[in-house]
Amino acid sequence: MKYTLEKSLISYDFAAALIKKALEHAQDIQLPISVAIVDSIGNLVAFARMDDASLISIGTSKGKAFTAARGGLDTEGLADFLKANNVDTLSLQDEKLVLIGGGSPLFIRGNS
Length: 112
Description:
By secondary structure, the chain is α+β, with helices and mostly antiparallel strands. It has three helices and two strands, in the order H-E-E-H-H. The protein is 38% helix and 10% strand. The longest helix has 17 residues, at 12-28.
């Protein structure tokens, strides 16, 4: 039997560039946000919170990033999938999951 450990495919530099783009967009639409980038197994790689972003957005941004990475779907899509399949979200038993729209998985071309 062969065991492998999946490694993160995202570098800090790439995560920081993604955060910069997200913050620029948020500034353009005048919406203060927090943004979190996690690796493929949900570990935090980079995080930023704009000056006027709510304190609650710190935890929700990290949770949305974790949920999207682990579920392989955007957080809204995962919530819809669970609802359509009559899965009680309380049964998931993972306090890190956040089923609020806004979290998106990142797929890097050429890597599985």
